[in-house]
Amino acid sequence: MISAVILACRAQGARGTPLAVAKIGDRPLLQFMVDALHRAQVFRIVIMLDSTEGTNLDWFDGTVGTASSESAALVDGLNLLIPDDLHGALICPITAPFLSQTLLVNVLQGFWTSKKNIIIPTLEGKRGQPVIVGESLFGPLKNGSSLDELLKDFPHEIIEVVTTEKGALIRVLSDADLAGVSL
């Protein structure tokens, strides 16, 4: 089973508003991400936040954790995953929120068919998000390695999955980046 960790720590909008509470229309950005994961049959999800204060997650039936930094959020999020039958985790930063079912299925299929432990979507030769990390590589992450360090230390474990989904490369750095978006 592949679970997901959504990293929503330290991502601030233009007016200091956390992206974790940003909305597209009347729905939270996080809800769009969770819905896409569900459509791709990923149901064990951990959302990592700076704080739950001001964040309404009544619609969410997964696990919510808090951490003081993105690196701590990754470690804590991995620790909150349920280990039963866990093969890996989709690492989903909130700054890369445009997950489509097609993108997620492409990455998931890459994991199951390649037997590699790091799966990265690519579009036009550029690496994107989300990344799957196999459970056998959780140890280095839990011991403080960043995702970038993991990529450098384990190049033989990487497979790049080509996608046509532009959401793999789109970054949201502020709530202003969401203006006019409708999903």
3D structure, described in words:
By secondary structure, the chain is α/β, with parallel strands linked by helices. The chain has a single domain, classed as Spore Coat Polysaccharide Biosynthesis Protein SpsA, Chain A (Alpha-Beta Complex). The chain is built from five helices and ten strands; from the N terminus they run βββαββαβαβββααβ. The strands form two sheets. Strands 1, 4, 5, 6, 7, 8, 9 and 10 form an eight-stranded mixed sheet that branches. The chain is globular and about 40 Å long.
The overall pLDDT average reads 85
Helix content: 25-40%
Order of helices and strands: EEEHEEHEHEEEHHE
Class of secondary structure makeup: alpha/beta
Itemize the secondary structure elements and their pairings:
Blueprint: E1 2-8, E2 23-24, E3 27-28, H1 29-39, E4 45-49, E5 63-66, H2 70-80, E6 88-93, H3 101-114, E7 118-123, E8 126-127, E9 131-134, H4 138-142, H5 147-153, E10 158-162
Parallel strand pairs: 1-4, 1-6, 4-5, 7-10
Antiparallel strand pairs: 2-3, 6-9, 7-8, 7-9
Descriptive keywords:
alpha/beta; eight-stranded mixed beta sheet; 26% helix
Short synopsis of the structure:
The protein has 183 residues and is of the alpha/beta class.
